[in-house]
Amino acid sequence: MNAAPPLATATDTAFELQALLDAAVDAIVVIDHIGTILTFSRAAERIFGYEAHEVLGCTVDILMNDEDRQSHGSHLAQYLASCIPRIIGRGHEIEVRRKNGTLFPASLAVGLIPESNPPRFVGFVRDNSAQHESEAEAHRLQDRLMHVARLATVGEMASGIAHELNQPLAAIATYAHACDRLLGGADPDVEEVQGALKQIAEQAVRAGNIIRKLRGLAKSERPTRVPSDVNQVIAELNLLIESDAKAHGVDYRRDLQPNLPQVVLDSSQIQQVVMNLVHNALDSLALAQVETGELVVQTRRTGAGDVEISVCDNGGGVQEAIVNRMFDPFCSTKPTGTGLGLPISRTIVTAHDGRLEYSPNEPRGACFKVQLPAMRAEPVSA
Ligand SMILES: Nc1ncnc2c1ncn2[C@@H]1O[C@H](COP(=O)(O)OP(=O)(O)O)[C@@H](O)[C@H]1O
Ligand SMILES: [Mg+2]
Known about the structure:
Layout: H1 10-23, E1 27-31, E2 37-40, H2 42-48, H3 52-55, H4 66-82, E3 92-97, E4 103-112, E5 121-127, H5 129-156, H6 158-184, H7 190-218, E6 226-228, H8 230-235, H9 238-247, E7 250-256, E8 263-265, H10 267-287, E9 293-301, E10 307-313, H11 341-351, E11 355-360, E12 366-372
Parallel strand pairs: 7-9
Antiparallel strand pairs: 1-2, 1-5, 3-4, 4-5, 6-8, 9-10, 10-12, 11-12
């Protein structure tokens, strides 16, 4: 027969408790009813940078930021008077202070030690600074990726842009030569020269406009979402899409439903999505054996009242083999494709609480639809 295990003595229990305190990853701090620190665990020493003997007997204020320091005393007093806990049992985010004065984000959970009179409280503090830093780093990387992707979109448009810029530049050269010739004659026709100069000015404005739009698209700025008219966002791209479509020998049609509800969006991000979709359509049309390549950009209000932008083409449609993977990063059927256009576009649209979906076009080709939530009217306050 096995002998019964010996009963734990009070000393054993105290040792176990100490071992628990020492092994815990979160800082454990026990305070009394006036905030005096009674216990300060190993993890607390590591996280706060104090040794236990430096803080035992001090008030817990030394671990707090200025704001909490001012309110903590009154919260304790309030609790003692009412016994209604404000934070007990609930984890919450706070900012705490290290010995060297630096502040860091942490989660705090507080429990009341049962039967303690006057009451004592145990606080568990988790250092969240690494998590916050990695979140901030992820945001920074996301911003950079968006910028690089935007530049890549602009880069993809280079051939269309070059083609479009060449036309006004060639016209300017022709008119300038004509002016030279006219002015070199015996009796120059001033009106004719003026006409040619006017043309030069117009063509220069046209070229300038193209460059301005391009700059706008390539610009790196912090994302800002404001209530916007989707048709206006598309209209700003018109010149770029038109020149690109022309360079690809594709018919470009716009079909924008008027009076759409406003959408809260970041216009340069949504423009990037549209340009990505337009590029994919033009790529597909370049390969497709169609007599007339067609690209249609449409906006409309959906049955649910939201706003939809669709980019459709009559190319080959998305290949069956990748239909389920096309939104995955690096999924590309093109020899020099990055496979990032669709996943980045979907990330942008999802961040706008919208959806980006694919459906085959009828009778042939691809259709990508971006649905964005319409701005709801502010509830009228009573
Ligand atoms: N309009 C389209 N027509 C046909 N296939 C498309 C279309 N748009 C996207 N695809 C397919 O989805 C893939 C992923 O697109 P994307 O993420 O933009 O990457 P990339 O354009 O660099 O290949 C493309 O390689 C292509 O096979
Ligand atoms: Mg692409």
